[in-house]
Amino acid sequence: MPGITREEVAHLARLSRLELSEKELDHFATQLDDIVGAVARVGEVAAEDVPPTSHPLPLTNVMRADEVRPSLTPEQALAAAPAVEEQRFRVPQILGED
Amino acid sequence: MSTDLTRMTAAALAGAIASGEASAEEAARAHLDRIGAVDEKVHAFLHVDTEGALRAARAVDAKRAAGEKLGPLAGVPLALKDLITTEGVPTTCGSKILEGWIPPYDATVTKRLKDAGVVVLGKTNMDEFAMGSSTETSAYGPTGNPWDLTRIPGGSGGGSSASIASYQAPLAIGTDTGGSIRQPASVTGTVGVKPTYGAVSRYGLVAFSSSLDQAGPCARNVLDTALLHSVIAGHDPMDSTSIDAPVPDVVAAARQGREQGIAGMRVGVVKEFAGEGYQAGVEQRFREAVEVLRGLGAEVVEISCPHFTYALPAYYLIAPSECSSNLARFDAMRYGLRVGDDGSHSAEEVTALTREAGFGDEVKRRIMLGTYALSSGYYDAYYGQAQKVRTLITRDFDAAFAAVDVLVSPTTPTTAFPIGERVDDPMAMYLADLCTIPSNLAGNAAMSVPCGLAPEDGLPVGLQIIAPPMADDRLYRVGAAVEAALTDSWGHPILEEAPSL
After folding, report:
1. What CATH number does residue A3 fall under?
2. I want to staple B118 with a disulfide (CB 3.0 to 4.6 A). Which of B19, B113, B274, B419 is the partner?
3. Are B358 and B95 contacting, i.e. CB atoms less than 8 angstroms apart?
């Protein structure tokens, strides 16, 4: 199994929306390399014909009755928002400069 | 009244409240006073809801005065893990990203507790988003183990375990994704149960790894744990993975175990959970507990579960993968922290700046690890292969439960380790969950019950009991029997050996 490089960690941080510092990149690169090396042991198990398990319960398509039920008021939903304007969530500009 | 209400069992306290020997308000005040006296040292609570607790207690007293019938835990105080939403009361998950967040709704667990007249004292400390085995990854500082305040109380539910071990509450709620109820119970000399996956609603539990997360009861003895289990378990239409079937009668099973024992039950000792990495005193107390089971008439055999040694690596691929998806909701747009919204940053930059400032190291490591395991090119080798190992672990359990009624092992390989010892060594920290993880992957039920103090350090050791899915009652029958036999041999409950704070 390949290890994990500092450049890969920088890429993962971007994908994960984490603005890591240079110091964190060094630190996490070493630790993630150790962890990936350890968890790669799953590859030792011969499991070609084994079906994957994604969930402990064999449930599919759990439905509920299509009935109106109480929900949060706009005031409740907006109460914890970082910024509110005209009874809406105010967000920063969606498009960056570049 | 002269009895110390904080030293009573939940069952006895509920009885005293129902009979009028004590009021629910007196019980709440006694525990709030205890919190005031000792929690500066222990740091089990992130938030104490004094007014809410007294209001709930008075409501129980008013019901009793009106002649209404009270439930079996009415008026009993409880400490609630800060991962579970509480309307109007802060819920932080031990994270800066949710500092000050006041949920607009109650989790189903919270609602069931309130409906049963259980008095919620406050919210307990935990590893950030339940990621950890020591409560040290909390953004609000560590919790001390009441047996030795320089040691960890387990994690992620260390605040819950420490609160009951230090008599700040007789009951607590934890959540268990890889061992976060059982390992804290083990290292604090208390009882904790991870119910069958789907037995307790996840509605209002802030999600870490949705296919593994399960809330459950914590207490100082098996019967109290059963009483709390029966309050919180049951089908909930608000959680589509909730099991629509009757809850096993865990209270009757606890009484049966204590009074009638376990003669004729078949117990399997997991062969793989011993040897290198296991503390000598943990193995010694575990072997003695197995002899106690044999003495009680159980038929004990050794069982091999060959894929269990791959449970830890499979878990550290599956749980981070699910966490990387679940924690994407913390984007700084609708609730929680927002950093860098100064007109010069785009929404995406604000998200990245906020997550950098709001998440701690362990959460960042797991999000990146999950992102890696799910990325194209690595998916089959990591996440896909881990899902296959999950199947093989479930098959190991199926084969074992065809031969025995329950499995047993140590709950965790060591006693409580010193605060700071493993904090920057993730792989060492992960080993604390070696024995508890298989039950999360397979979704079955498991308990930790105290089985003595390790001779070399005088710290508590836990016996793990594992039962098949929806056979949670077996845990209580076996747990109560072993608890009764051991308490008899010690002459008193194990917690009486803990130093006074």
Report:
1. 1.10.20.60
2. B113
3. yes
Domain boundaries, position A18: 1-45
Tokens of B115: 């409906």
- Mean pLDDT, consecutive 10-residue stretches, chain B (501 aa), reads 87 98 98 98 98 98 96 98 98 98 97 98 98 98 98 98 98 98 98 98 98 98 98 96 96 97 97 96 98 98 98 98 98 97 95 98 98 94 97 98 98 98 94 97 98 98 98 98 98 97 92
Asked if the C-beta of A32 comes within 8 angstroms of chain B's C-beta atoms, the answer is yes
Catalytic residue among B81, B111, B123, B194: B81
Interface check for A51 against chain B (CB to CB < 8 A): the answer is yes
Here the ipTM equals: 0.95
Interface mutation vs chain B, best among A18, A61, A73, most B CBs within 10 Å: A18
Most B CBs within 10 A among A9, A17, A25, A30, hence the mutation to make, goes to: A17
Residue A41 counted as domain residue:
yes
Q: Which candidate in B23, B95, B134, B156 is catalytic?
A: B156
Say yes or no: A96 contacts chain B, CB-CB below 8 A: yes
Query: Which residues does chain B have within 8 Å of residue A98's beta carbon, measured at their own beta carbons?
Result: none
> What is the rounded distance in angstroms from the CA atom of residue B67 to the CA atom of residue B82?
34
How many folded domains does chain A comprise?
Answer: 1
Q: What share of chain A is helix, strand, coil (3-state, %, to 5)?
A: 40, 5, 55
Tell me the β-bridge partners of B409. Answer: B464
Tokens for B385?
């292969």
Length of chain A: 98
Report d(CA B202, CA B177) in Å as an integer: 12
Tell me how far apart the alpha carbons of residues B204 and B234 are, in angstroms, rounded to a whole number. Answer: 15
Instruction: Indicate the residue of A16, A35, A47 with minimum beta-carbon distance to B371.
Output: A16
- The active-site residue, picked from B133, B134, B166, B180, is B180
Q: Which CATH number is associated with domain B5-307+391-491?
A: 3.90.1300.10
Render the burial of B141-154: b for 16+ CB within 10 Å, e for the rest. Answer: ebbbbbbbbebbbb
* Domain limits, chain B: 5-307+391-491, 308-386
The first and second tokens of residue B281, run together, are 């005193």
